[in-house]
Design goal:
single chain; about 650 residues; mainly alpha
Length: about 650
């Protein structure tokens, strides 16, 4: 039978092998690991192997088979808290993997995970599964269900898992953004940012946070990875940028884009930085800073991966818009063509290429009177790929057709009816206003003045509605931004006050430490003197009573007593009424134990405390153990950190 040490060594090797296999995504590697370690005959390790096998299956063709194999294996095992927890974890991983493939199935397995964790009374697992279901509903665009579920999950985990809290808040803010509840989105992003900053503070100063009485929250959150926190902050700032761009607050959006570029400055992978350089250029472009936008895009091109066609496409598209604004139409067309060539390579960006870039390029052709090129560009899209035919794209085609052929009235009117049907699905007054204005131009070309006038009236109404909405939204956004800035400044002032107070406490603690050591030196000197006197009396063979009397007088030295009192006064300056507050909370603690705690907080070790109190080191250890028992302190908690809360 193996010793505990041998088991730990094998387990460490096992974990290392698992991680290596994950990195290279080798399923065969997992099976080899299982074969190697199956001799240990540990059910826990076997379960771990099965679950990790399924995670590795993310890169395999037979992922579903691996999950089913693991689930079948779990069902054969004896029912226990461990198997329930493993089952919940397995269903959760499966639900997460299915988010990219089958959202209905993902919901099904998220629910199974929730019930498994609930039976096991595993709160974090339960709410992670609950949030996984909400995420699937979000991707299904069922925001009416996703939003309340996310809000419920946040309330449940906000005091037990801060990392998950931030993830949920970002999802809530995204729902608010999509459903045009912009002030709520900003406030939610701000909440998420505050929690992230608190977590980052914990990573730097765990003792300080624990001293504020919040150690349980942080310990259970299990957040130590600075990289992950860094990414969460980027998502939050990106959310701020998106909301502000949507509401026309371009100057504020620009500030967030610049902050993101600074945050990503030292990233080894340039991909995310290039994306945000493109967004920064977009913000500049909206403000009319075309020259600066072009410079930013050029620098993005220089540092970007030339093989990443998606990024190259977005850079070219934005560059085309810069040239379009400067009326450099031929250069703009070249960049539009390059953007199309790059983005058409990927299914996810193909829609953007058709619905946006084709429309932009057609608008350029129409503006410069090249209607034949517009017809040539868009006809194939409209006839062969109607799924990409947005109202704006069809409208550009109709404008070109009307200008090219005055006999195409019936055909143009049919297209306009199709546009009107599509517009019923639009929620954007700006889109409708833009199209109504172009419809007016088409009707005017065919001499239909009544319809042209009617469209101009519609355009005016939607334009005014758009401006009113923007003004109201901007007012709400400005109010939210002021509140956010006020909160930020308040936090900065509070942080400065904490830093100043910590510096003062640090100085006082240093003084206290010096006084404690001075007192210790005096005690050591008296102990040496006492030892010498005892030696002398032993040699003189005096009576035991005289010796005891001298020892007593030495121990009750007025000098030592006065110095101890001065030391306590110094301690009281740092922590007034510490002894009183300690005894109110823990009335069973003795006076000697109070002294031990004061010396612990003064930075003395057990040996120094034993000398100062004239007791053995073993006695000090016993006092410390008694204190831990009386205060109910857990093993993984430091006595010093716990007492700092009272101090």
């Amino acid at each position: 039978m193996m010793t505990k040490k041998q088991e730990d060594e094998i387990l460490a090797l096992y974990e290392h092998s698992i991680l290596n296999a994950l990195v290279v995504h080798e399923e065969q590697e997992f099976r080899q690991i299982f074969k190697t370690f199956s001799s240990v005959n540990s059910k826990q390790w076997l379960l771990h192997y099965r679950i990790m096998c399924c995670r590795a299956g993310l890169c395999s063709d037979n992922k579903q088979q691996l999950y089913e194999e693991a689930i079948g294996h779990l069902q054969k095992l004896k029912h226990s808290p461990e198997t329930l927890r493993a089952t919940g974890a397995l269903y959760f991983y499966y639900a997460q993997d299915l988010l990219d493939e089958n959202l209905e199935e993902s919901i099904h397995f998220a629910e199974k995970s929730y019930f498994a964790f609930e039976k096991n009374h595993h709160e974090i697992g339960k709410w992670r599964a609950f949030y996984s279901k909400a995420t699937a509903l979000f991707y299904l665009q069922d925001y009416d269900q996703a939003l309340p579920m996310c809000l419920t999950a946040f309330e449940a985990v906000k005091d037990i898992d801060l990392q998950l809290s931030v993830e949920i808040l970002i999802r809530i803010a995204l729902v608010y953004d999509i459903t045009q509840q912009m002030p709520d989105a900003l406030v939610t992003y701000q909440k998420a940012e505050n929690i992230c900053l608190t977590l980052m503070e914990y990573n730097k100063y765990p003792e300080k946070i624990e001293s504020c009485g919040r150690s349980v929250i942080f310990r259970n959150s299990d957040v130590r990875e600075k990289f992950y926190l860094h990414r969460l902050i980027i998502l939050i700032k990106g959310g701020f940028h998106s909301v502000l761009m949507s509401t026309g607050a371009f100057s504020d959006a620009l500030r967030y884009a610049e902050e993101l570029i600074e945050l990503l400055k030292h990233d080894k992978d340039n991909t995310l930085r290039v994306r945000w350089l493109v967004n920064l250029a977009g913000s500049r472009l909206k403000l009319g800073h075309v020259g600066e936008a072009k410079k930013i895009l050029q620098s993005a091109r220089e540092i970007s991966d030339k093989n990443n066609m998606e990024l190259q496409g977005y850079i070219s598209w934005n560059m085309a818009q810069c040239h379009f604004q400067e009326k450099q139409y031929d250069e703009a067309i070249l960049f539009y063509d390059d953007a199309l060539k790059c983005l058409m390579k990927y299914p996810l960006t193909e829609t953007i290429a058709f619905t946006n870039i084709y429309t932009d390029k057609a608008e350029l052709y129409n503006e410069t009177g090249r209607y034949g090129l517009t017809l040539q560009l868009l006809k194939k899209v409209i006839e062969e790929q109607p799924q990409y035919s947005s109202p704006n794209l069809i409208m550009e085609y109709v404008v070109a057709l009307a200008h090219s052929d005055l006999n195409s009235q019936e055909q143009c009117y049919d297209y306009i009816n199709q546009i009107n049907t599509l517009l019923q699905q639009s929620i954007s007054p700006s889109d409708i206003a833009h199209i109504e204005k172009k419809k007016s131009t088409v009707f005017a070309l065919f001499g239909d003045t009544e319809k042209a006038y009617s469209c101009l009236v519609e355009y005016q109404e939607y334009y005014e509605k758009m401006m009113t909405n923007q003004a109201n939204q901007k007012s709400d956004i400005i109010a939210a931004l002021y509140a956010i800035e006020a909160e930020r400044y308040k936090n900065i002032i509070l942080e400065q006050q904490i830093i100043l107070k910590n510096e003062q406490i640090h100085k006082l603690q240093n003084d206290l430490r010096m006084k404690a050591h001075a007192l210790l030196q005096q005690v050591q000197a008296v102990n040496v003197l006492r030892s010498d006197i005892i030696t002398v009396f032993d040699e003189l063979d005096k009576t035991e009573d005289i010796l005891k009397n001298i020892r007593k007088k030495l121990n009750e030295s007025p000098l030592l007593q006065r110095n101890w009192e001065k030391f306590l006064q110094a301690f009281e300056e740092i922590s007034p009424n510490f002894s009183q507050r300690l005894l109110e909370r823990y009335p069973d603690i003795t006076k000697t134990e109070v002294r031990v705690l004061i010396l612990v907080l003064s930075g003395l070790n057990n040996q120094e405390i034993s000398e100062l109190l004239s007791v053995t080191e073993r006695s000090v250890e016993k006092h410390r153990l008694n204190i831990r028992k009386k205060t109910g302190l857990k093993r993984d908690r430091s006595l010093h950190a716990a007492m700092m809360e009272i101090m």
